[in-house]
Amino acid sequence: MGINGIWRWFRAGLPLRYVVVVLGLLGCCMDYLVRGGLNIAIVAMVNTTRSTLNDSHLPSGACPATRNLSHNGTDDDDLQGGGEFDWSLEEQGIILGTFFWGYFFTKTSGGRLSEILGGREMMAISLGASGMLSLLCPYAAYLHPMALASLRFIMGLVQGPAFPALYSVLASWSPPDELATMVTIAYSGMSLGSLVAIGTSGWVVHQLGWQWVFWGGGTLALVWTPFWLYFVRNSPINHPLISAEEEELLGVNYSIKPRRNVPWTHLIRCYRFYPCILAEFATSWVGNQTITEGPTFLKMQIGMSLTEVSWVLAGGQTCSWIGSFTFGRLSDLLIHHNIFSKVNTRRLMHFIGMMLVVVGLCCMVWAGCHKWVVSALLVFVMIGTSTTLSTFTLAPMDLAPNYAGTLSGLLGIGNISGFVAPIATAEIITKTGGWTGSLLLGSGLYLLTGFIYMATVTTEVQDWNYYEDLHSLIEDQQP
User: Fold this and answer.
1) Buried b (16+ CB within 10 A) or exposed e, 304-330
2) CB 111 within 8 A of CB 167
3) Consecutive 10-residue runs of the chain (479 residues): their mean pLDDT?
4) How far apart are CA 14 and CA 8, in angstroms?
């Protein structure tokens, strides 16, 4: 079609904001594809990834199917030995975990960086650099396991600012009555990326080799980057491809401009924001139970094969992906038609998600060893967590759109549960001999933080959102 053809196509009336949100979705997808490919590839990389199952490795409360599996040793879904690297389980754990240490450090500050440097530029740098680092992963693996771990740590540092940067961009490109829809569609790319990683990495390893998990993901991220830079701007003002009608529609957002100075004192005193961090903490905790620990739970406790586990997780991610933008669209419709106020819509969406998560986790305890009942409940939990994209995830835009990037980054403080949850889960299983305590703890945390959030949530823009404007006005009036 060419650049001129693309230009005429957009000028003919295709809303540019939809292109921005789709590119945001694909960016989130690339982010999760690049970061998650290692989880599958390492099975083929290492010749000791499959620990022989025996009763001494199983929780005392494991289901009979698990014990039968350990005795028969017929789980042909596991990749047998044959890998190129003789890494210990401790080394594998370090390689898998270092990404999240780097990610935590820069996500909290990434929002502020995106406001200073520009969300569009920060997102491009983050994913472009991640793509380059992904291409280098196979070579680092051949050097030394700690070389790969170090590269993954750097990748985490680089990826940290990506999501807060996207948030800054969406703050300017989302009309008020489409806010939840656009945000949830864009960030649903996280579930889509996980789904693609789960669904394709095994095939890629079998057909092309484990190296192509890294090379393929890295290449896709690099291909995405120029499209993002060409079609996206930090603000729709004077975008060369935007129509006059859409520019007028988005004019309500023109006052949203990243500020150079953050009113930290006022932000710290904003008690309405702290429950959002707690809610993020609980959501990350439950996410650890479903995505990170879920395969271990289904295999070691319930006795499912790896093929069955993969189908359950893929189904859960698919439902979560669909649910995220379904709940987002429903939120906008409820607000647009004045069925509920914005704040009560946030409460309703979070209540629905909270019930799915809490009831799902509790019923998983009562379901015992009925593997397909447990699997269905796990999917319900994953759907429940998807509602968060329509609740506290929108708090930065609700409270202070001028500082949306900064607040989005600070929400990442709640991701510390990603480090705490695995430790707590292992300790509970060791002491109790089963997963009951871990599931009930996750349920309790989600219930408690959910009620705190619903009791304190507000959608009113805070006065300090205009701090810099008021400060400049006062200075102009002084003689």
Assistant:
1) bbbebbbebbbbbbbbbbebbbbbbbb
2) yes
3) 55 76 93 82 66 48 59 46 70 77 82 81 93 94 92 92 87 80 86 81 80 92 94 83 75 59 86 94 88 75 76 86 88 91 95 96 89 92 92 89 84 81 79 85 95 95 73 47
4) 10
